[in-house]
Amino acid sequence: MEDNINKPYKICDMNREKKKGIVASSLEDLIGKVPEKLGLPPENLTVVLECDGTEVDDEEYFSTLDPDTALMILHGNEKWSPNMPKCQVSLDQTDEVSLGEKGQVASLVGRLQHNLCHISLLGGQDLELLSDMDPDSLADIVTDRDNRIILEHIKEASGRILLEKRQAQDAMELLKLYHQSVANGAEDVSPPSQETV
Q: Where would one find the signal peptide in this protein (predicted)?
């Protein structure tokens, strides 16, 4: 096995906004060069595979990586997230107020563009807005075809999550009713007599 061979790697920050090429002979060598390349502080750095977030935490595993492997450098408590296409929506606050519901939808989409997984954290009212939206009606805000496809996916996902949340609420209501009926049934039944025949 050949040690200390310089190999090229592609590194990026958590947001995938800063991307650089780097040559390193070891994991320690790579981590030592990150602050200069990406402008991150030198302490609390974690190296993960950019494609799936697998942590690269020892020299043995690092040595098995192919040249030009894409790596993500995380700092502190940063977490890996999948690379999701961004939907560009350009609205200022005046537009948001004057467009009413369309402005609210655009604002929600704008918030989701950084991490689409946050859709599961939205409340019922926001999910309803997204699931009821007509992506074609946002043509004046979102003109790119790929962005319209993303809007279709957001619409479908929000509808699914809204349905799941409603089903969970219905199940909880049924459980409450069941427990109430069991409790009421227990009160109606008198305790058995202690007398022996």
A: none
